[in-house]
Amino acid sequence: MVPPRELLARIGLTLLVVALGFFGYRAYGVAGLALVAGGLVMWALLQWTRTMHILKVTARNPVGSVSSAVMLNARLRSGMPLLQVLALSRALGRQVSPQGDAIEIYEWMDAGHVLVRAHFRLGRLTNWELLRP
């Protein structure tokens, strides 16, 4: 089930795209519609490039490791998407929750065995904890 806030965001984005298409067509005809479509394709390509760059950087580092767990802990905010957390940690987290659970739990550990355990629901960070040895 999609949370109400995310549902409203999806509906709002859809309405924005339809409105841009409508006003583009009204202002410049087919050329305006093509301009709006080109802008949307460019936005999608930028998002794709950003995602691929983050995944390429994370693939270079060992799974579940981070340079400083304390710094990662300080930069986390509730509601962050998993992709943004991956960009901060520069490594894929080690999944500790069973596959298919509603809440996914990932861990990152630094060289001093300080651990950050992050809980995600629907791809968004809900809470996290810093565990010291």
Written overview of the protein:
The protein is α+β, with helices and mostly antiparallel strands and 133 residues long. It has 2 domains: 4-58; 62-131, Beta-lactamase Inhibitory Protein, Chain:B, domain 1 (2-Layer Sandwich), CATH 3.30.1450.10. It has 4 helices and 4 strands, in the order ααααββββ. A hairpin with a 7-residue loop joins strand 1 (94-95) and strand 2 (103-109). The longest helix has 30 residues, at 30-59. The protein is elongated, with a radius of gyration of 19 Å. The two termini are 38 Å apart.
Which helices and strands, and how do they pair?
Blueprint: H1 4-28, H2 30-59, H3 69-75, H4 82-89, E1 94-95, E2 103-109, E3 115-121, E4 124-131
Antiparallel strand pairs: 1-2, 2-3, 3-4
Q: For the report, how would you describe the main beta sheet? A: 4 strands, antiparallel
Fold-level CATH name of the largest domain: Beta-lactamase Inhibitory Protein, Chain:B, domain 1
Number of helices: 4
Work out the helicity level: 40-55%
Radius of gyration: 19 Å
Broad structural category:
alpha+beta
Strand ordering within the main sheet: 1-2-3-4
Overall geometry: elongated
Number of domains: 2
User: Could you report the average pLDDT, rounded to the nearest whole number?
Assistant: 94
CATH architecture classification of the largest domain: 2-Layer Sandwich
